[in-house]
User: Fold GntR family transcriptional regulator from Jeotgalibacillus proteolyticus.
Amino acid sequence: MNIPLYEQIYNSILEQIKEGFLKKGDRVLSEIELAEKFNVSRITSKKALDKLAQNNIIERIRGKGSFVAQDHPTVNQADISKPYNTSNSKLIALIVPGFSDSFGSKLVGMIEETCSQNNCNLIIRFTRGDVIEEENAIKSLVDYGVDGLIIHPVHGENYNVELLKLVLENFPLILIDRYLKGIPASSVSTDNQRASECLTNYLFDLGHAEIGFLSSSPDGTSTIEERVKGFNLAYSKRGLILNPSFHINHLISNLPQNHNRESLDKDYAAVKQFILDHPTVTGFNVCEYDLALILLKVIKDLGKNIPEDYSIVCFDSPENLLNRPVFTHIRQNEFDMAKIAVQHLLQLIQGEQIPKHTMVDFTLEEGESTMGLISTQLNEC
Assistant:
């Protein structure tokens, strides 16, 4: 059985005490010194010292260092010969902005189930879309001693410092739903570019000549950036010139930190103005389900109908086993994303190599929000 690196350091120091190389009151190597000696990250060496302190083997004095405790237990009491965690159980933490019925609930559920199947315990922390909350969650969970992290990064272009530290120190970490540009962290996500291209082509095949795209800002969020690319690519491959004004990209009410009436009203007004300013647009590719609901509300309030006057496609939708979904949408494979994320994280914990970016396939599910303007054979994605 592979013993975690920090446990190896822990046992090494206990051995030095057992052999008499370290006596009561002697100074123990610092986090930096241990990291250099064992060629590990400071996160790992700190974890070893933390466990020694928790077991009263050493005393940590701020500003001075770590010292063998005057009243530490005997080596036999410390049970040096007993391998750490004989069940090989791991402690994994999941950090997410939140989740909903349209996307996230199945993902979180399957992560928990996959952890349980692999003898892992799971801690879940919510950031509510706040980068400071995300930073605090990472720091506290690493300090607590988790073996690895699965993180659904918050929306935006600002990467938090604690996440960057983890990546630089090779702490076991998997990003889910998106990746971070320029950051060499492994990720698992949907093939968002191909999925968005698929949705846009679906509308083209229905006979819609001019299609709009609705999203929040794509800056710093790979998921949205890839969906915008797919939308643009669908236009390009058909030799069509895309009017830049067909993309409204400043909606905010779908973000966890903006779930309030004021943001909703702003987005409603922006979408309504977009429709009034672009009367030739008859199809809409919407980046998220919540934004599609706003669009649907605006269209109905304008006295128009779905799908007779407009067609809407979007990403994600609550599952309805009794009726067709409201929107034709991309169904992300949350189950596979979850399983792969946990499996890859466990491989990282064991020191194995994994792919940097893993793309998971998707399905297009037809709903009540689309209707062909012409009779045509629809192409598969």
